[in-house]
Amino acid sequence: MKLSHSQRPFRPIAAAMLSAMLVIAGCAGNNNGNAAANNTAGNQPASAAPEVQKLSVVTSFYPLYYLTSEIGGEHVEVTNLISSGVEPHDWTPKSQDLNKASKAELFLYHGAGLETWVEDFTKGLSGDSAVMVKAMSEGIDLIEGEEDEDEDSHDHSHEDEHHHAIDPHTWVSPKSVLVLAQNVKNSLIAADADNAAVYEQNYTALHGKLTTLDKDYAEKLGAVKQKNIVVSHEAFGYLARDYGLNQVSIMGLNPDAEPRAQDILKIAKFVKENDVKYIFFEELVSDQLAVMLANEAKVETMVLNPLEGLTKEQEKAGITYLNLMQSNLQNLVQALQ
Known about the structure:
The protein is of the alpha/beta class.
């Protein structure tokens, strides 16, 4: 017997409606659960990465800032005490610098007499500071500063408070920078062992670049005919020692020293007798003496950067220590052909 339309069972429809109601109820329950979970998580997106806890490091001058930034990467927050455009020999710390270092976890300075202020500085750190203090020049074979006994070649008329018994300018030589980089890496690990693997990895990458730079310096400077470099500031002793050059400087280890007229004439004579074509000057101090000597000897001038810091223009342009070292090599090769 065929049932009429009004007599057909309603069970399939009822079952469908019941399923829909259960789905709706389930969704409402899930939404409440998600809301509770979101509240517990502080309404943070599920995909948000945890914030990296950075090691706070203060460095005394630019080369150490560069090395620390490269090796530390995203795990360090580096503050450099000396601003861009400031010559380190002219800089002295202020109270805010002590405050920065006191709050840091690691303070890296070069040593070897560069930071003449560092002993008093570390004594002035706040009593509750837990900062770890490390000298980075450890392990480098240091050069004693030249002190001429001939009074005609050196002005003894006044004492210089920045006088160095040791030449501190290690970082101008790739061979020395390789040691500085290793010391920076070891210091970061000592202060933050949890990220040792990251520091080792970043150090290995930087070590490769510095090793390539060292090989380039050795190969190209080994091939030049002229071995004499005449510079305004006696900052290239390690470069000269490590790559077979002879440094002749207008001023001493401190770029503020003032040579006498007979010093200029003596070096001008050396330039003419040894067929030197260029007098090197640097960017963070006046080029007046280099230009004076070049005019006297009838030669050209060229930049040889002591890499003690960046100019504001270089910092803005993203120039790095490695870029400047490569530029120095290019200028040396051109001048010493």
